[in-house]
Amino acid sequence: MSWAGGDFGERARCVLAPNADHMTLDGTNTWVLREPGARRSVVIDPGPAHAGHLDAVAEAAGEVAAVLLTHHHLDHSEAAREFAERMGCGVRALDPAYRLGDEGLGEGDVVEVDGLEVRVVATPGHTADSLSFVLPAERAVLTGDTVLGRGTTVVAHPDGQLGAYLGSLRRLHALAEAEEIATVWPGHGPVIDEALPALDFYLAHRRQRLEQVEQAVADLGELPDDAMPRRVVEVVYADVDPVLWGAAELSVRAQLAFLADRR
């Protein structure tokens, strides 16, 4: 599936960063949001410090009222301060270390810019500081790395926690069931036109993986704690490209911690 960003709904443009690799898929999606006819925009996840990308974002955005971050990973946040200083605005994030200015960002906040309304939903799990942003006027949710446009995400243990991640997926699922969101605008990969089936898949996938990890641990028997995660990856993720095994091991560590807490 080819993905190059573009315009979505009446309020969004995705500017695709040129940082494609096995973890970022086609690259980081930087989202520019603006109410129709408005002067100012909101930029979500400026992405990497790539001059050409930031020029393209600046051109799409015009005057920027605020930069928002879904989470702190560098492929989303690296250029945030540089871009905000260039545009004369602040950076709002859950983690104070990534803010520029004195405005934070967290659960229940509503960002309003020239008629644009962005509602903040805490969705920890991929990282502790992961946020999603709901645009009620579009019935869309910007998920960062919590839900990807293709494939599934990594629970980046120990910062990421599986229990929190499952809770976040259930929360997004409830919003979709209530028809408050219909589409997903992710941090990587293409837009998902139908949110509810995608969230059904994500929850089912996590349940399946957890069952597979639990069975692998039982089959492997007694192993040193530091050896178990990699051996589980070799069993459960045998059909996955080994280049992704490092990321898979982070998720396995999160799964093992979750299972240990459940005992």
Commentary on this structure:
The chain contains seven helices and eleven strands. The strands form two sheets. A six-stranded mixed sheet has the order 1-2-3-4-5-6, with helices on one face. The protein has a five-stranded mixed sheet with strand order 7-8-9-10-11, with no helix packed on it. The protein has a single domain (about 5-260), classed as Metallo-beta-lactamase, Chain A (4-Layer Sandwich). It is globular and about 60 Å long. Helix 4 (about 160-175) runs antiparallel to helix 5 (about 195-220), helix 5 (about 195-220) packs across helix 6 (about 230-235) and helix 6 (about 230-235) packs across helix 7 (about 245-260). It has helices at about 50-60, 75, 80-85, 160-175, 195-220, 230-235, 245-260; strands at about 5-10, 10-15, 30-35, 40-45, 65-70, 90, 110-115, 115-120, 130-135, 140, 185. With about 260 residues, the protein is an alpha/beta fold.
Task: Provide keyphrases for this structure.
263 residues; alpha/beta; Metallo-beta-lactamase, Chain A; five-stranded mixed β-sheet; 7 helices; 35% helix
